# Entry
Amino acid sequence: MAAIPESELIINENGTIYHLNLLPEHISDTIITVGDPDRVAKVSRHFDNIEVEIAKREFVTHTGYYKGKRLTVISTGMGTDNIDILMNELDALVNIDFVSREPNEEKIKLKIVRVGTSGSLQEDVPLGSHLASRSAVGLDTLMEFYPLEQNEEEQSIGSALQKELGISFRPYCVSASEELFQKIAFDMLPGNTLTCPGFYAPQGRVLRAGLKNKQLLDKYNTFRHNEFLLTNFEMETAGYYSMGRLLGHEVLSLNAIVANRITQKFADNAEEVIDNLIIKVLDRI
# Structure
């Protein structure tokens, strides 16, 4: 394969990858991701020791050891546009030779676990629960630009949701890593996560800008396709799962349910719910 041009694989003067500002040796092959940069330290404070602390833009990275296992925790900011950057650059760090600019013959498969917050779309998904995304449906258009392969059922779910919402493109549907699901999420509430391209109108919130589809939240809540329903929504999971499939990495998204949009309640112990999920992941990953 020809060398990847400088304009496509951008390497900083210090040899690090463009946005993440990392060298290959800065990361483990087992990675915990969080949205909020401040949450990185809430994970790494449990490490036995920290050997790497690097920050650039919204991407804050700590690498160290937890009970003898080398782990990396990195923040992503919000949205699948950031996940596009994160996943491509993490993959480049382990699967592209920065000197020759050619992909390595032997590929490394990363294990990536997202620990995030989410709002429930069903009344029976309780506040304070830990939900594992068995699959994710993307309402963003990131996969309009990638050759994502989907099976017949995934395409059918996307087509049904497109028709229900009356939007101009077909949402994409991708499943989690079964390996990571069984290892980490075996006793968590399984769900199907809707990934939205925004926090306000795309999630049915109305402040001053208004809402084009005033029944949007109800449509999310009542959507059914065979046995498939949407349990919760956030802003990143579908991006993780699709990029994981494209690049060959194992990815799992875990959600601390801190809001129920149907009952209009917000957890009064949200930080405790998140911290408990962090500990659970650290012990199982």
About this structure: Residues 80-95 form the longest helix (16 residues). The mean pLDDT is 96. The CA atoms of residues 190 and 241 lie 15 Å apart. The helical segments are 38-44, 80-95, 152-165, 178-184, 216-222, 237-247, 270-284.
